[in-house]
Amino acid sequence: MCQTTLHEFLHNLPKCEHHVHLEGCLTPQLIFQLAQKNNTPLPDPATNPAYESIEALTSRYHHFTSLDDFLAFYFQGMSVLIHESDFEDLAWNYFVKASKDGIHHAEVFFDPQVHMDRGVEYTAVVNGFVNGCKRAERELGLSTRLILCFVRHLPVSSARGVYEEALKKGDFEVDADRVHGIGWSSTEVGPPKDMFRELYASAKAKGIPLTAHAGEEGDPSYISTALELGATRIDHGIRLVEDTQLMKRIAEEGILLTVCPLSNVRLRCVESLDQVPIRTFLDNNVKFSINSDDPAYFGGYILDNYCAVQEAFGLSIRDWRRIAEDSVKCSWIGEARKVELLGRIEECVMRYSK
Ligand code: ADE
Ligand code: ZN
User: Fold this and answer.
1) Catalytic residue among 84, 216, 217, 325
2) Is 23 a residue of the active site?
3) Could you report the per-residue pLDDT of 217-263, keeping only the tens digit for each?
């Protein structure tokens, strides 16, 4: 439990989440439950003892050695999702938790290629997640955006397949209000940095907002490549601090980094939370939001991440106001919603500044 004096303020501060993988919200409990319901066998505990029990799996999550070590569990975990309702329930459960944590706007990732690769229909995945988003908007008053991620461990042809299917179905049409942007994720170092050059050029020409996981494990050249390909936001981006010129450019252009502190510690991108470059970003006017990434795997949702940052850096209400305001201003939402959310932040800051 967070011990900081700002805990109540951080809870009530209106937050935006820009970096959470819906499949990363699958808890060990839900993995075992859905495996039984959907008759999708989990790995044999004789060869992989992590799958002996919910407790064993939870405990294994405390010992990830790298991004790729985690991804093996993440892709295995999502194999229990079969029906449209599984995807909808997963999204809905996340939004309920997000709302309780004080999130007012959430931009959420999903990995359709991985589901299609194991035989699940594109429409089951997308309809399920879209339904979850719409229900959150109706019943919780959240605004939501759904971001389709291409994955870097599968061939480009697979990403092209899902992209073409989404285009054919009209899912990227602004009026359809279904899928609002494209990102890339999964393994960083290894595959060609610019593997999605052609697809990003096509999406950019259509005006689809683009983001990309870069600078998590990879050096700053992964970030500059993502920008060159058309990303207007960078997911993680913590290794930006190694290139001061690029950091200056990102600050000047107002590009948002979606930082995930607890994830960075669990995946050993940093040794401890105080090594996440929060202070450096604040000092260099780099805009960033704070996010949970894969909360079911990394031991914390957004508020846990806010609290962990507060415990490590002892930020002021003024610092938090700036983080919250930048999060709103860089969200992929219209002006009217931004004004509404900025007003709520102002109200909260006034209440706790007395
Ligand atoms: N997919 C889910 N979580 C991820 C992460 N932290 N980095 C890259 N791809 C991911
Ligand atoms: Zn991520």
Assistant:
1) 216
2) no
3) 999 999 999 999 999 999 999 999 999 999 999 999 999 999 999 99
